[in-house]
Amino acid sequence: MSTDFQQARMTLGARLRELRTEAGLTGRELARTLGWLPSKVSKLENAKQTPSIADLEAWAQGVGNPESAVELKGRLRGFETRYRSWRRQLSSGHRARQEAGIAELSRTRVMRGAEFGVIPGVFQTAEYARAVLTRYVELRGTPRDVEPAVSARMRRQEALYEPGREFHALIWEGALRVLICSPDVLVGQLDRLVGLLGMSTVSIGIIPFEAPMRIAPGDGFWIYDDRLVISETWNTEMWLDDATDVALFSKIWDTLNESAFYGPQAHRLIARARAALDLA
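Predicted structure:
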């Protein structure tokens, strides 16, 4: 879990404890008032559990300070808009997240991103997207809405053909070779990448295995118009709009870009990955 996320949760927990003690209540007394187990009060105060909106409203009522609910919910929204667990985001399936991506992309003229284990979603074929989304549905146990999610992902790609937009992507060579799908599907995906290399709105840099690098590959991320960064981990998607965070990710992108190959060299690296599939 992100240190920043945990720190924000600890600050909220401390505020909950402060409100309880100001009311002259023990943890057990508050739990009894709310009909909770005492352990829940302890977990919320000690940042072992993230409260829901309903939890915060109940807490404010339980400590006799209903006005504090507004403050508490504001604190929660403040860090949940930055760190969004996949469990919560995908509780109704993948389509909603894809639709959110369309909305954010519609506001964006220039995107810069880096992916190290998978072909970027905005470049994926339907078959490759279907394979990727199916694997993550299985991993996270989320609702199986793969087909609507694939359709939404394909709609996102319409932006590639709109004049005035720019997509600058860095792809680790390993992502060209990960068999998260069948070899035939990956061949089609690699051919799709080759077709994108000559587009005026798209710039694709491939970072080869043997390239000298000043920093190691990490989690994938995308920068939207230097105003927002979206980065994914196994359990969380971070939406970061703080200027310091955006500047850091821009520096990371620039540093990685020093190791990337473009044009004919990028084409050769994609062809190398395709040839390896023919030999497998």
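Summary: The chain has a mean pLDDT of 91.
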